[in-house]
Structures are given as structure tokens and as C-alpha cells.
Batch of 2 targets.
Target 1
Amino acid sequence: MARIFSGIKPTGSVHLGNLLGALRNWVAMQSEHSAVYCVVDLHALTVPHDPDELRKATLSLSQMLIAVGIDPEQSTLFVQSHLHEHAECAWAMECTAAVGELRRMTQFKDKSDSSDFVSGGLFTYPALQTADILLYDTDQVPVGEDQRQHIELARDIAMRFNSRFGQTFVVPEAVIPATGARVMDLQHPENKMSKSEAGGQGTILLLDDPATIEKKFKRAVTDSETEIRFDPDTKPGVSNLLSILGAVTGQEPAAAASGLNRYGDLKAATAEAVIELLGPIQACYQELTADPAETSRLMTLGANKARTVASATMDRVRTNLGLLQR
Ligand code: AMP
Ligand code: TRP
């Protein structure tokens, strides 16, 4: 069984784009792979953050991942900082990566251009991500297109390390779902729905109540025509609604239009489908938040499973690097 690894940062609230673009795929992959999923809180430290917010977001995201269907018994689900191996391995990765390689990362360029404080951690972020992946003998990394460059870097680092220090790491590859829904903002359908827009009217949060979801869809931006047609270039708003409706009901976006005649009907149908999808997820999330002992048991279980693999890899890394046996 191929091993897969993926990670998600605990920043902001989880939204419909995360669910339809990534998390649903994580859930689907767990039955046919040996899956390791990580809440990457150390990555959240690379930009200015509020400690209380981070603590809450890490717990909430862990519970949300279980609620959307990640099975903590079948898969390995854990919080990155619960294992010291990630930070430890990241150092070895930083010493294997070249400054020039890190400087070429477009995510670093984008994020450093737009902030006044740029941490060293933001620059070495991809080395930590490489450590996350390589610690678990990962074959495949399911991610969005924006992460392709980071996974290429992880491959290069793994190969370089292996050739310098002997066979140590499995060389991973990215798997980018061709059909993964790209969910756009309901108010600005030319932009991706995002956490930074969260709280805004264009983002559906997984914890939004039915009335809020209805309201947000009702106010969704469409266009001045009346025809329901899937054409993202000229009709971004309507096409986004069709994409969402299609993704939730398991149809192609164009097919989701059938039987709908007015924009109001499309909005209502999409809202209803999303409310129906999120209902059981919200119920499961509420159950978990009401039972901290169970959440804590599941997180400990995940950390222990992860540690078994990560510590064996770290032993190899230490030995092959020439660090003196403890
Ligand atoms: P982020 O919220 O950027 O940390 O992303 C977490 C995961 O959700 C990544 O795998 C993204 O590719 C995915 N994702 C984020 N926003 C969207 C969106 N609007 N549509 C589809 N996938 C998304
Ligand atoms: N950088 C990824 C993102 O922004 C999150 C991440 C951290 C990750 N470590 C990972 C993804 C390892 C895949 C594998 O979405």
C-alpha cells in the first residue's frame, strides 16, 4: 500500500474550498493508502501569530478533520509539534538545501513581499515541509497545484541527501487531483475562496449555520444575464455555483444546471446541498468538542503512531549524518 502524507495549517477557519478541494480527497484516499495527515502548527509560526488563537485553531482543526471523515484509527492523524522529530529533521533538511533553491520558492517571494516582518522560518519553511514528508517514507503527497514547487524541492533534497549520505529517504511525488474542485469566493468569483477572506460574505465556513449559508448564497455575485450556463471565463459567479453544486452532488458542473431555470433557484439548490453536506459534519464536530477526553485520546493515539515511523527515520538520519550515538 502506497504511503501518503499531507498537511494543513491551523490558521483561520476551515471553509468549503478546503473541504471540496482537499479534505474530501484526503478522506477518499485513506481506505486505499496508508495515510498520514498532520496539523502543521509549526508552519503557522512562520508568520506573526497570536498564541491563544493558534492553540484554539490547532485543536479545532484536529477535531474538524475527524468530523469531515478522517478516521484516526485507520489513518494517522496528529499535531506536528507533538513530535520533536519534525523540527529536528528540518535542521538536517536546511543543511541539505541550498540558499539559492529556497530563494526561488514563489510562495516565499509572495509572502515576503506582502509583509513587513519576514522571519527566517518563512524562508526555511519548505525545508520543514520536506522533513514532514520524508519522515514518513512517503510515496505520494496529495496537494493543490500551489504546492507543486515545494514537493519538487522535497524530491531534490531527498535525492541529494541519499547520494551524499547513503540511502535514507524514499523520494516522494506530488499527486495533484485533476478534478479537485476549485472553489471561488462568492463575492469575488475571480478569486479563490480563502481563509483570509473568512468572516467575509464570500466564504462559507464549515461551521456556518444553515441561515448564514442561505444568506451567503442568496447574496452571491452572479451577472446581468439570466442564463444558467457553465462558462468560468465569462460567467465566473454562476459557474462557481455550478461547480459547488456539482462537487457536492457528485455531478459535472454543466450537468448540475439541468432543471434549474433562474439564478435564484440555482442559489437555493446550492445552499440546500451545502447545508445537507455540512449538517452531519457539524454534528460530529459538536460531539467531539463536547468530549475533550476523547479528542485528547485520539490526538495521543495519532502522535504515538506517527512517532513509531518518524523516530525510526530520524535514527537513520542521525547515523548516516555521522552524529555520535547517544
Ligand atoms: P489553505 O487554506 O491555503 O491552507 O489550504 C489548505 C488546503 O485546501 C490546500 O490543499 C489547498 O489547495 C486547499 N484549498 C484552499 N482553498 C481552496 C479553494 N478555494 N478551492 C479549492 N481548494 C482549496
Ligand atoms: N505548505 C502546505 C500548505 O501551505 C502545508 C504543508 C506543510 C504540507 N507540510 C506539508 C502539505 C507536507 C503537504 C505535505 O498548504
Note: Residues 195-286 form a domain with the Tyrosyl-Transfer RNA Synthetase fold (CATH 1.10.240.10).
Target 2
Amino acid sequence: MNLIITGLPGVGKGTQANKIVEKYDVKHLSTGDLFRNEIKKNSDKGQELKKYMDAGNLVPDKLTIEIFKNELVKPIYKNGFLLDGFPRTLEQSRAFDEMLVDANIKLDGVIALDLAEDIIIERITNRLVCPKCGKTYHKLYIKPKKTDYCDVCDMKLIQRSDDKLEAIENRLKIANSQTKPVIDHYNEKNLVNFITMKKTDDTNVVFSMIENVLDRL
Ligand code: AP5
Ligand code: MG
Ligand code: ZN
């Protein structure tokens, strides 16, 4: 299966992607994670990416598409992929659609997560991440076993550098104007499955809604 998971920043894409890859034969490809790994290397490219990301701006399409293409051609994605955070602009979706045609790959579905923005802000501002393995927690709802330390690596958890209120508001504004048209684009092709969530839907409830969709594909 070849899938996209999309939705506003902080809606739960990464959290659900981790559950999806455990059950289905798809490899997770998050452009945000790819960029953060490049930043960790402290390369020139990483420093350029950090500038855009910390302010909550999108990385320019040309650079994003180049990095994405170099990743997607790797053999690990041959059996199936789950894109998280790409495509996020119409220009990226055009480049991706061309790639699919050239490589004779079929996109099976798009999962669009939907949640009210005030709940999203509460989720992002309380997010903690492991600097080593990237595992994500929430200070109130998805707590680590030992306060402030990763369950897997025992590393001290940190806040993401773009999880400051100013950057979050910018990310939401950009996503509403640039990423919503991408969802419309795939909806016109009848590929989008909307998952509308309530504040109280925990990660398992959301995952069972996604399973219902994926088991029908
Ligand atoms: P990216 O890393 O993709 O960030 P994002 O889209 O802003 O999304 P997030 O990762 O913040 O949220 P998420 O939906 O994964 O939510 P999560 O599961 O963590 O991109 C970062 C930046 O990189 C961009 O701003 C841009 O600069 C750049 N970039 C990336 N891709 C790009 C592209 N294609 N083009 C240009 N630039 C690009 O959940 C959030 C919180 O909620 C967590 O604390 C989690 O524990 C909690 N939570 C999740 N589910 C639940 C639940 N059901 N109940 C309670 N809490 C929950
Ligand atoms: Mg994410
Ligand atoms: Zn960890």
C-alpha cells in the first residue's frame, strides 16, 4: 500500500504513523523527521533547513522536493510507503504525481486527520520529544513512564524548537492556506478519507478509525 497521512501541524500524524507501520507493511517517510536528521548532522543544508523550520515557515519547494525524491527512491520504500508531511503545497503534489507516473506507482489513499485548532495548540505546546529516537509524548495525555525521560532510551525529553506559540500560529496559518488545497486536489481524485476527531478520542480510538479505512483499501 502507498499512503499519505495529512492534516494540520500537531493533529497527530506522527503518532498515528507509528501505529500504522506496526500493523501494515508500509515504511514511514516524514519530511519533518528527514529535515531534523539533517539538522542533527550540522551540515550547511541542515543549518539552512533550521532557519525555516524554527520560524514555522515551509522549507522552499525546490529544496524539499530534491530531498524527498532522493529519499523515496531508496529500496526500503518498495513494498509500500506512508508519507507524513509531504506533499504540503500544490507544487509538491504536482512533482509527486509526476514521480508516481514515471515510476508506475499507484497511490492507494490519503488519510486526512481533522481536529479543532484550539485542541491542536494545546497538544503541540505540551509535546515532548526524545532527542535520540524521536519518540513523542504529551505532558498530560501521553506521559513517559519516568517523568521527562524517554521510555526507550532514557534520554531527557526536550521541546521541539518550532513548538513555541509564535511558530505554531505561523505553521497553522501556512497549513490552512497551502496544505488544505493539497487535500482538495486528492479529494477530487476520490482518494481522501477524512478522520474527524474529538478532543477525547485517545490514540487507540483514532487508530481504530484509521484501521476501518485501511482494511477497506
Ligand atoms: P513536521 O515535522 O511535519 O511538523 P508538523 O506538520 O507541524 O506536524 P507535527 O509533527 O508538529 O505534528 P503531528 O501531526 O505529527 O502530531 P504528533 O503526532 O506529534 O514539519 C516540521 C517543519 O518541517 C515544518 O514546519 C516545515 O518547516 C518543515 N517541513 C516538513 N515537511 C515539509 C514540506 N513537505 N514542505 C516544506 N516544509 C516542510 O502529535 C502532537 C502532540 O499530540 C504530541 O504531544 C502527541 O503526543 C499528542 N497526541 C497525539 N495524538 C493524541 C491523542 N489522540 N490524544 C491526546 N494527545 C495526542
Ligand atoms: Mg510529526
Ligand atoms: Zn528515545
Note: The longest strand covers residues 109-114.
